[in-house]
Design brief:
With about 425 residues, the protein is of the alpha/beta class. The chain contains eight helices and 26 strands. The protein has four domains: about 160 residues, MoaB/Mog-like domain (Molybdenum Cofactor Biosythetic Enzyme, Chain A), CATH 3.40.980.10; about 55 residues, Molybdopterin biosynthesis moea protein, domain 2; about 80 residues, Molybdopterin biosynthesis moea protein, domain 3 (Molybdopterin biosynthesis moeA protein, domain 3, Beta Complex), CATH 2.170.190; about 80 residues, MoeA, C-terminal, domain IV (Beta-clip, Beta Barrel). Bound molecules: adenosine monophosphate and magnesium ion.
């Protein structure tokens, strides 16, 4: 157990070192369960899945048109003898000189080897005139073209996306074995915190962090353990109880060095403090460690710090623990249309607004005031502007690294 008050502990740990220490302290949870595909979004695959059959399972048309056996490189004509619709195939083989009407996704009849787009033929009663530039295989989707029978569809580590659900459904897979869900709990600490719906007394504020965390943790169905006041004994008891029941416990507030900040002390008493303070802004006071098997994150109290430390440390830790593997956020460089102020010493995650212009160019601008208590700028922002420890600010027009919150951007007002 480390002494949280030692001079070494008082030094600020660089963000990358903190990330490394977290990842090397974690192992994916054991255990799996079989669930329906419908409930598998964001769950982590526990075993490789192979295609039970070819996809597509039969030759079919990729266009609305006419199917026939073609004559290469010269115009030809065929007699229209029937139709094949999606789900209603033409059941006979084509005989020489015949063609059928066919629609996208409909099964190709035996002996047909191409589909002519309907725009490319002329129909005269029951005679169809085909132009002279045909090749066998044209406008046909072949069996197994997407996935061949027995081919690997997905393998761990893999957190299932909407696209994965579609892929598995296309193969007829209706149940999947996934890792057991993580058990996560979070709570707020602070005597000043007031529940929504209650009037605010003097010096009191609403507890916003629990709302932020329940949103950030939505895919994990985490337990909200409420608010615990700044009383060391009741806070310790609450943390001990939760640590026995959850894989991950996240607290906000009380992680700093104020008289009523007990989190790091309690963690040192009942578990192991891995680190406590990091060279990051916002988010310096972050206590990380273990209480028995429970992974503990004592996040700062300031709302912007909660969000930044969650994104940078908790999110990748949850990916690792849940079995989804080691992940890293999407980051890239864009020009910044505002000058940014920064003092050297800590890596900063300034809140920015990323814009995609009509010519495809991306730029970022500051989302406004950067104080760790300023929630409005975080809400307005759609990305972090990530500034290195030694950066001393940037000029307007400089390249900066951004990390989007999500993949869709609000359109800029014209
Ligand atoms: P602390 O780390 O407890 O000293 O809190 C730092 C700052 O964050 C203080 O201004 C607290 O009032 C504020 N704070 C702590 N917890 C919350 C919360 N759950 N919601 C909103 N603000 C909070
Ligand atoms: Mg507090």
């Amino acid at each position: 157990m480390s002494d949280v008050c030692s001079p070494v502990s008082r030094q600020l740990l660089p963000v990358e070192d903190a990330l490394h220490r977290i990842s090397s302290s974690l192992e994916p949870v054991h255990g799996s369960e079989q669930i329906t595909l419908k409930s598998a979004l964001h769950r982590v695959l526990a075993e490789p899945l192979h295609a039970p059959a070819d996809i597509p399972g039969f030759s079919n048309a990729s266009m609305d048109g006419y199917a026939c056996r073609c004559e290469k490189d010269q115009p030809f004509q065929r007699r229209l003898v029937g139709a094949s619709l999606a789900g209603h195939p033409y059941r006979k083989d084509l005989r020489p000189g015949e063609c059928i009407r066919i629609f996208t996704g409909a099964m190709l009849p035996g002996e047909a080897d191409c589909v002519a787009m309907q725009e490319h033929v002329e129909v005269d009663g029951d005679i169809v005139h085909f132009p002279g530039n045909f090749q066998p295989g044209q406008n046909i989707r072949l069996p197994g073209e997407d996935i061949a029978r027995g081919q690997l569809l997905l393998q761990p580590p893999k957190k299932l996306s909407a696209m994965d659900l579609g892929l598995l459904a296309s193969a007829g897979i209706c149940h999947v074995r996934v890792k057991r869900p993580l058990k996560i709990a979070f709570l707020s600490t602070g005597d000043e915190l007031t529940a929504l719906g209650q009037p605010l007394g003097p010096g009191r504020i609403y507890d916003s962090n629990r709302y932020t965390l329940s949103g950030l943790l939505a895919e994990y169905a985490a337990a909200d353990l409420g608010v615990v006041g700044d009383d060391k004994d009741s806070l310790r008891q609450c943390i001990v109880d939760a640590a026995g029941n959850y894989d991950v416990l996240i607290t906000t507030g009380g992680a700093s060095v104020g008289d009523a900040d007990y989190i790091a002390e309690i963690l040192g008493e009942i578990g192991q403090v891995d680190f406590w303070k990091i060279a990051m802004k916002p988010g310096k006071p972050l206590a990380y460690g273990k209480i028995g098997q429970c992974c503990f994150f004592g996040l700062p109290g300031n709302p912007a710090s909660v969000i930044a430390t969650f994104h940078q440390f908790v999110a990748p830790a949850l990916d690792l623990l849940s079995g989804a593997g080691k992940t890293r956020p999407l980051r890239f460089k864009v020009r910044c249309s505002s000058a940014l102020q920064k003092a050297p010493g800590r890596q900063e995650f300034q809140r920015g607004i990323l814009t995609r212009h009509d010519d495809g160019e991306l730029t970022v601008t500051s989302a406004g005031k950067q104080g760790s208590h300023i929630l409005s700028a975080v809400s307005r922002a759609n990305c972090y502007i990530v500034l290195a420890d030694d950066c001393t600010g940037t000029e307007k027009g400089e390249w900066v690294v951004v990390e989007p919150f999500s993949t869709r951007l609000q359109e800029a007002e014209k």
